[in-house]
UniProtKB/TrEMBL annotation:
Protein name from the UniProt record: Zinc finger protein 501-like
Record-linked Gene3D superfamilies: Classic Zinc Finger
Species the sequence originates in: Petromyzon marinus
Keyword RNA-binding among record annotations: no
An example Gene Ontology biological process: positive regulation of DNA-templated transcription
Length: 402
């Protein structure tokens, strides 16, 4: 904090406004917390105080001062007393006596330990009455409820967008300023917030700390584990209004809805091809550059994406980790198993908008739609026959050769 302040002054940074209040008006003593909505003069507990900054109680010259050289800093939803001694280590005053039996982490109060324990047990006592999602804290449930009501109290000053939570607004504003203060030491990639950096770092370390208690599969992120757990429970709260298909996540439903509307919002700048997901677009864009950094050790074939190489490698090893529960057939990729499972269930989610014929795969539906058109741009140079789809032409040529 720039500038020199009187030892009889306390500095408050609240919602980016600088407050200078004489310490005598605060009457600060050990264990006393200060809070007011308008004027910071009343003694109250600080639970729930919204702040973006730091309150420092400076020491008297030549002594530890009235507060014993303690600094109060904002940590999540409460103030904590932290020492400002030699070296500025900032250790929390008082001994944390409540230790987690699962991971050994210690807490100063039992309520904090109880909340932390839920990260191990998966307990979510606060349930949403609309979608059934559970939360560890009532405040998290209140924030979640705004998704259903459409309420977005945190507005961006630079664009019309609104957000449910303040930290989401902070991250968003950094996109306008292009500020990315958190940089990965392994690859140099920068991020707007530290939590995203920590998640990214697991790509390099391979860390997957969140394990499924049912099947043992591990995940790098807790959110991925929660989504996976719904596969075992059969929970499908998000239903398509067109075909009534259920989905674990709302994002999956949004992507599915595009199969009905034909929407492809993510366009390739090079060729104009559209995609339902930005990840699909990124994969496609790498094909234009011609760079294929991921090479197979067995056959030398190169791939633009590491995930594609891993799937390819299973062809050499014969590994099929994803098995069908009905017939036992194994698949190298989970998406292939999902498509195969539709054979047993009879599900055909992709419908032709012209004749209402249903298909298991979107690619098969797209080929069929072309059959309604008189356009057949693919011509066989052997017999002169025209085809609406390139794959049909290739199949035709193979038949001629055999």
């Amino acid at each position: 904090m720039a500038g020199t302040f009187s030892p009889m002054t306390t500095i408050f940074v609240l919602k980016k406004n600088l407050w200078r209040i004489p310490k005598r008006s605060l009457g600060v003593t050990m264990g006393t917390f200060i809070r007011t909505k308008r004027v910071l003069t009343s003694k109250k507990r600080l639970w729930g105080m919204r702040t973006l900054g730091l309150a420092v109680l400076p020491r008297e010259p030549g002594s530890r001062g009235e507060t014993g050289g303690l600094r109060r800093t904002w940590r999540r939803s409460r103030w904590s007393w932290r020492t400002a001694g030699a070296g500025g280590t900032g250790r929390t005053a008082g001994n944390p006596t409540h230790e987690c039996p699962s991971c050994g982490r210690a807490f100063t109060c039992s309520s904090a330990l109880k909340r932390h324990a839920m990260t191990h047990t998966g307990e979510r006592p606060f349930k949403c009455s609309v979608c059934g999602n559970g939360f560890r804290k009532s405040s998290a449930l209140k924030s979640h409820a705004m998704i259903h009501t459409g309420e977005k109290p945190f507005k961006c000053p630079l664009c019309p967008r609104g957000f449910v939570q303040s930290f989401a607004l902070k991250r968003h504003v950094m996109k306008h300023t292009d500020e990315k203060p958190h940089k990965c030491s392994a690859c140099g990639k920068a991020f707007t917030d530290s939590s995203t950096l920590r998640s990214h770092a697991r790509i390099h370390t391979g860390e997957r700390p969140h394990g499924c208690s049912t099947c043992g599969k591990t995940f790098a992120h807790l959110s991925n584990l929660r989504s996976h757990a719904k596969i075992h429970t059969g929970e499908r709260n998000h239903r398509c209004p067109v075909c009534d298909k259920g989905f674990v996540e709302s994002s999956d439903l949004k992507n599915h809805a595009m199969t009905h509307t034909g929407e492809r919002p993510h366009k390739c700048a090079a060729c104009g091809k559209g995609f339902t997901k930005p990840s699909f677009l990124r994969n496609h864009e790498s094909t234009h550059g011609g760079e294929k950094p991921h090479k197979c050790d067995a056959c030398g074939k190169a791939f633009t994406q590491l995930a594609a190489l891993r799937v390819h490698a299973m062809g050499h090893s014969g590994e099929r980790p994803h098995g069908c529960d009905v017939c036992g057939k194994g698949f190298a990729h989970l998406s292939a198993l999902k498509v195969h499972a539709m054979i047993h269930t009879g599900e055909k989610p992709h419908r032709c908008p012209i004749c209402d014929k249903d298909f298991i795969k979107s690619s098969a539906c797209s080929r069929h739609v072309k059959s309604h058109s008189a356009e057949k741009p693919y011509k066989c140079f052997v017999c002169g026959r025209n085809f609406a789809d390139l794959s049909n032409l290739n199949f035709h040529v193979k038949c001629l050769n055999h």
